[in-house]
Recover the amino acids of this structure.
């Protein structure tokens, strides 16, 4: 009888743990990862499925340290080094992918919202802006927090005129909480990198 009771306790513990994990994922993950709309999910693969032809691709990766503090709330600033120039044919589209590993540092005791907007910009054409954020309710943890985010953002332009276009990345803080809080992209010591992959496509 005691054996059956022990097995029952184990099963109950497993079920409770699974329920806890599901609830945690449902309520916490939205604060840890950027929110993407359906139009943000248009990608290189979507255009290829529509019969797109790849004309050329350019890829660049950086490990230089880029950082923005949360008191930089007045204007978008350009992310250091993160730029590609590309010349395209008449009627081509650009499929742009920005990938990065970032570190969000929150000084103790942090309480509130830390958030940043990141924009992929095609100079003179348009941009796609995303948000990365974290929220800590209550009185804070009492410890310095360092949160790592891995993300992959996409932007596909409308058909373009022939010419040379500059693609770069801008960012801005959208909250200012007391303390030394910041978001960094890439770090040569920790082997974090960020990259731009730009593909010229033409649909048939």
């Amino acid at each position: 009888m005691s054996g059956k009771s022990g097995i029952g306790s184990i099963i109950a513990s497993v079920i409770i743990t699974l329920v806890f994990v599901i609830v945690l994922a449902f309520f916490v993950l939205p604060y840890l990862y950027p929110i993407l709309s359906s139009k943000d999910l248009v990608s290189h693969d979507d255009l290829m499925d529509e019969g797109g032809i790849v004309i050329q691709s350019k890829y660049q990766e950086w490990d230089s340290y880029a950082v923005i503090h949360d008191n930089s709330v007045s204007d978008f600033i350009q992310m250091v080094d993160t730029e590609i120039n590309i010349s395209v044919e008449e009627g081509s589209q650009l499929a742009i992918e920005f990938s990065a590993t970032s570190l969000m540092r929150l000084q103790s005791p942090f309480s509130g919202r830390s958030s940043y907007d990141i924009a992929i910009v095609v100079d003179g054409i348009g941009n796609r802006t995303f948000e990365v954020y974290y929220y800590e309710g209550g009185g804070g943890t009492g410890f310095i927090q360092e949160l790592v985010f891995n993300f992959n953002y996409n932007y596909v332009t409308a058909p373009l005129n022939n010419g040379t276009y500059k693609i770069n990345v801008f960012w801005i803080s959208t909250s200012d909480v007391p303390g030394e809080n910041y978001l960094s992209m890439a770090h040569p010591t920790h082997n974090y990198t960020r990259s731009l992959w730009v593909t010229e496509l033409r649909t048939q």
About this structure: Confidence is low (pLDDT under 50) at residues 21-41. The two ends are 72 Å apart (CA to CA).
